[in-house]
Amino acid sequence: MKRRRKWTRYLTPGLVFQSVLIGGGYGTGAEIARYFGCHGLMGGLLALGAAAAGWAALCAVTFEFVRVFRTYDYGSMMKRLLGRAGFLYDLCFNAMLLLVLGVVNATAAAMIRALTGLPSWVGVGLLSLGVVLLVLNGTEAIEKALSLWAYVLYAVFLLFFAAVFLRFGDAVTAELRRAEIGSGWFLSGLRYASYNLICVSMILYTLRDLQNRREAVACGVLAGILGAAPALPLLLAMGCDLPAVLASETPVTAIFERLDIPWLYVLFEIVLFGTLVETAAGFIKALEDRVEQSLFRGRSLRPNRPASSGPAPSGSSWPWLARPLITGAVTALGVCVSTFGLTDLIDKGYGAICYGALLLFALPMLTAGVRMIRRNGA
């Protein structure tokens, strides 16, 4: 892979992080309303800042850890960080993989059915096709596609907010002037950040061109900001009628009903569908990198020596059919999981898995990881 220009080295990790992070709940506004809007518009902005700060801190430390130890897949990173206990994070990641694939398939089916009236299998089929094509085109294609779609998403979200502000600007401004700050906004922001920790470990392949600590930390801080950025126009748009929007199961849909701009709604849904493809592809890509690296456990994990520096070496046992087979099998498994229903999927597993990521990844990285960087950093 060609070395990226300096500005893309800074932007690409954050753009890819935002792409795998956003998913269905973020894009529909449900998560934004639940964790941010419920504290009032001003309180929501503060909670969003807390979430961005949490992501920025974890990304900065993780990116520097990956640069120092050259652990460009989550398996190598967790083996370095947790030693023999690293397999516990594998269990956590695989559980989240199945849950997320089930959720995005169920969301895609519901989205296509609502937009076109076509059967659910059409949405699932389109999503699966997009995921397979994206993953099988390789790392560079994934980076470019996710980065490009992030720009498209920012543009459409800003267009959405502009339409809301032109129509309901007085209401949004009045809500801001109320300066309502509900109690618990700080913990709510950190809680939301903690629910998406696994996404940080999914984008390590984008960090291979980092040259020094300054770049790693800057990329990490920027990733936290870019991850939170799409939530800002959504949250502000909710100010058009915050109580009614918070009462809706899909806040963005409630806002579009007030806007009554069908073409913008269709455009927004297309962009959101693309984020579902990105999220699923990001998880599968991370899993495949993990499986590939596990075939070469004998390679050194000493500081500053690559643990996962790209394609498998010549003569390795990594067959060319492995990625297509893994991609197809995991995609099909996600389709099966989606039949359990969206609400049941979230209620039964999401919280427990996220707490596992907090205990196995975030806390060790921010404590033991920092000490290891200080001992071995360059």
Q: Any key phrases for this structure?
A:
378 residues; single chain; globular
Condensed summary:
The chain is mainly alpha-helical and 378 residues long.
Largest sheet: none
Second-tier CATH architecture: Orthogonal Bundle
Q: Please, how many helices?
A: 15
Q: What is the CATH homology-level superfamily?
A: Hydantoin permease
What best-fitting shape do the alpha-carbon axes yield?
globular
- Give the C-alpha Rg: 20 Å
Description:
α5 crosses α14 and α5 (87-116) crosses α15. The protein has 15 helices and no strands. 76% of the residues lie in helices and 0% in strands. The protein has one domain (6-376): Hydantoin permease, CATH 1.10.4160.
What's the topology here?
Layout lengths: L5 H23 L1 H6 L5 H29 L4 H9 L4 H30 L3 H17 L2 H40 L6 H10 L18 H16 L2 H7 L4 H6 L3 H9 L2 H33 L27 H16 L4 H35 L2
Helix pairs in contact: 1-7, 1-9, 1-13, 3-8, 3-9, 3-10, 3-15, 5-6, 5-13, 5-14, 5-15, 6-13, 6-14, 7-10, 7-13, 13-14
